[in-house]
UniProtKB/TrEMBL annotation:
This is MMPL family transporter. The keyword Cytoplasm does not apply. The chain crosses the membrane at residues 181-199, 204-223, 229-252, 278-298, 304-330, 361-381, 504-525, 537-556, 568-589, 625-643, 655-678. Keywords: Cell membrane, Membrane, Transmembrane, Transmembrane helix. One of its GO terms (cellular component) is plasma membrane. Residues 195-329 form the SSD domain. It is found in: Cell membrane. InterPro entries: MMPL_dom (IPR004869), Mycobact_MmpL (IPR050545), SSD (IPR000731).
Length: 709
């Protein structure tokens, strides 16, 4: 790191020119990258996805989407009876739209289940193609207009469905650029407090360059594989927080060295040796957490792993080259007005660390109790999708659903199960599968378009929404019976996707966990020159993440926070892909603070301090920094939560809660108390391990029974 710092200072003008050119190139390709991002949650090789692909190939719709549910409600005092033909023609008219749509109703199945119990409302299922981009608009209005043009006079038309309800809950929200600017303004406020000088703008400059660099690096990946649209949000907002954090750490240490009397050149080099070393290991740790997604057999998660790993790598690269280049030139002039100084530890954090060390058993016990309560909540987690109650509380889609429910129709109609069967055996398949416990209705479409190449889609209506790990049992029962039923080709639908995802992703979770923990442990052994500290760091990260999931269960699944903060009812489940995303990002991001703190504690210990003294001095130096860094990341996630989409809000709040939990309970209570309790065991490293990893041996000196000095 010293050599890199010296090189950058010798060539700082060239370094800054290179980053200027890269930034301009990044600006030029950002729009192209965004246009190449895809919306695809398929699971190749899984039975549900394979069946869905056959349905889509045959019909051009359905398979991997939940249908729209169209309602026709007769005027007061009138019933559907007598108007069946006209209503059937109205429903059938949607198939004339430019979008390939497939209709299932009473007219083409002969089943009266497509009426409410009071006979006043008829409904139809309209299957549509999966959106090919994030900007694709649902065919809700196309369907509504087509049906409304032919219904009996005075009848009202409604359109609902899981996706229609989700869209009905959207407020539009700010775009990615607006969210990034919002997060940037929050970060600037924190940085102005931390630096109290024009230096506050430097981490923002580094973040802007890092974000644009990441988009530039992502461009070739979009030509090699599909990359999920989610990456766009993550680069903009996670990239903002990570790059600011890294630059904040380096600039703060440079400022400290300047305040201790070093000239500007030596201050930059020392900051690179110390803070730069921590930034490097932190960035690699974050990248490891994200690259672990690559081992999962899910394309969209793999793409997030590829794209997401670029965020910390680009941030590290920019921080360790552009930041010292700027500091080596105009740094002292930009540090104006010089209101805050860094030549002494934070008195408040020093006192706090001293208190924690003196009351280490109490501090550790309090932290464990709080984490234990959240971990207990985690045991009730349901993995799946948000249910209909949480998607909207008003709007046209909500009103249409209330009409169906008031008429005795189960919300299971929102998540039907599609069974691809041989046409000549479709009736027998429907009869057999319709007897499965939890299935209300089994229907077989007839008429034009129902039979394609000797195959027909039998539709099963469950008695409840099949949206999470506990409500998909009916899907599993259907799959079990279907496997032994003659004529069945496969089972698809939202519930089948949930079953496949749980198997493909969470079934491979032990492999992912093992890979991450092993790589991180080896990396941190090198960083801390200890066997115990890295083990503690890895275990605390896993405990912290379990507690975060418990908090998400309480906040979203049970609705104790979602309604108060966002006006969204309890979701009943945590969206199936979000826990794995939260894990991948938080595992590395929260490890940042562990590296920041323990690197400084290790430095103080190597300088001759006892373990307790090293903890107090290390926390005194890094406490304000870690808190500020965590607050900046939290504000970035708050900006992400302001965007449209319940799922994005769930992801953002999960990340935000995780950062706050980690910076408070874990790093301010549990880490210092445990390091104090472990004493000299923290620093033990066998010479053979040190030689194997090519690092300096760890010298353990005699402990002195002192706390604060």
């Amino acid at each position: 790191m010293r050599a890199l710092g010296e090189w950058v200072l010798r060539h700082r003008k060239m370094v800054m020119l290179c980053w200027l050119l890269i930034t301009v190139a990044g600006m030029a390709v950002t729009s192209t990258v965004n246009n190449r991002l895809t919306v695809d949650f398929s699971l190749p090789g899984q039975p549900g996805t394979e069946t869905a692909a056959q349905i889509i190939k045959a019909y051009g719709n359905g398979g991997n989407t939940v249908p729209l549910v169209v309602t026709v409600t007769m005027p007061d005092g009138q019933k559907v009876t007598g108007s069946e033909q006209q209503i059937g023609d109205a429903f059938a008219s949607v198939t004339q739209a430019d979008v390939p749509l497939r209709v299932l109703d009473e007219a083409n199945t002969g089943d009266a289940a497509f009426r409410t119990e009071d006979g006043a409302t008829a409904y139809a299922l309209v299957f549509y193609p999966f959106p090919d981009s994030f900007a694709t608009v649902l065919p809700t209005e196309v369907v509504r207009k087509a049906v409304a043009a032919q219904v009996p006079e005075g009848a009202t038309v409604g359109v609902t469905g899981m996706d229609a309800l989700a869209v009905g809950d959207e407020t539009g929200g700010p775009g990615v650029l607006a969210e990034t600017l919002l997060g940037g303004l929050g970060a600037l406020a924190v940085l102005l407090f931390v630096f109290a000088s024009l230096l506050a703008f430097m981490p923002l400059l580094v973040a802007a360059v890092s974000i644009l660099t990441t988009f530039l690096l992502l461009l070739p990946i979009t030509y090699l594989t599909d990359v999920s649209f989610i990456v766009e949000f993550l680069i903009a907002l996670v990239g903002l927080g990570v790059a600011i954090d890294y630059s904040l750490l380096l600039v703060t240490r440079w400022r400290e060295e300047r305040d201790h009397g070093k000239d500007n050149h030596e201050a930059v080099v020392t900051a690179m040796e110390t803070a730069g070393h921590a930034v490097l290991f932190s960035g690699i740790t974050v990248a490891i957490g994200l690259l672990a997604l690559v081992v999962l057999p899910v394309p969209f998660l793999r793409s997030i792993g590829y794209g997401g790993a670029l965020i910390p790598l680009a941030s590290v690269l920019v921080t360790l080259t552009l930041t010292p280049a700027i500091l080596g030139g105009i740094g002292p002039r930009v540090d104006w007005p010089k209101i805050r100084h860094e030549n002494q530890s934070s008195p408040a954090w020093t006192r706090w660390a001293g208190l924690v060390v003196r009351r280490r058993w109490i501090a550790a016990g309090a932290a464990v109790l709080m984490l234990g309560l959240l971990t207990a909540a985690f045991t009730g987690i349901k993995i799946g999708a948000a249910d209909s109650e949480s998607l909207a509380s008003n709007g046209a889609a909500y009103d249409a659903l209330r009409t169906l429910e008031d008429g005795g129709v189960s919300t299971g109609v929102l998540t039907p199960i599609e069974v691809l069967a041989e046409t000549d055996k479709a009736d027998a398949v429907a009869s057999t599968l319709g007897e499965v416990d939890g299935i209300v209705t089994a229907v077989v479409p007839t008429g034009d378009g129902a039979d394609v190449d000797g195959r027909t889609v039998v539709v099963l209506i469950p008695d409840g929404e099949t949206v999470n790990s506990q409500s998909v049992d009916v899907v599993r029962r259907v799959q079990d019976v279907a496997d032994s039923t003659d004529g069945v080709i496969g089972v698809a639908g939202l519930g089948a996707d949930q079953v496949d995802f749980l198997h493909a992703v969470y079934g491979n979770l032990p492999l992912m966990l093992g890979l991450i923990c092993l790589l991180t442990y080896v990396l941190l052994v090198r960083a801390f020159r200890s066997l115990l500290l890295p083990l503690k760091a890895v275990l605390l990260n896993l405990v912290s993440l379990t507690a975060v999931f418990g908090a998400m269960v309480l906040f979203w699944q049970e609705g104790y926070g979602s309604n108060a903060v966002f006006g969204i009812a309890e979701t009943g489940a945590v969206t199936f892909w979000i826990p794995i995303m939260v894990f991948a990002f938080l595992y590395g991001l929260s490890m940042d603070y562990e590296v920041f703190i323990l690197s400084r504690v290790r430095e103080e210990y190597d300088a001759g301090a006892s373990t307790d003294q090293a903890v107090v001095r290390g926390i005194g130096r890094t406490g304000r920094l870690v808190t500020s860094a965590a607050l900046i990341l939290f504000l970035a996630f708050a900006a992400l939560a302001s965007g449209p989409g319940t799922d994005i809000k769930v992801l953002a709040t999960g990340l935000g809660i995780g950062i706050l939990l980690d910076a408070t309970i874990i790093r301010s209570l549990l880490v210092p108390s445990l390091v104090s309790l472990f004493g000299s065991w923290n620093w033990k490293l066998p010479d053979r391990v040190a030689r194997l990893l090519r690092i300096e041996p760890s010298v353990v000196h005699a402990e002195r029974p002192a706390i604060v000095d």
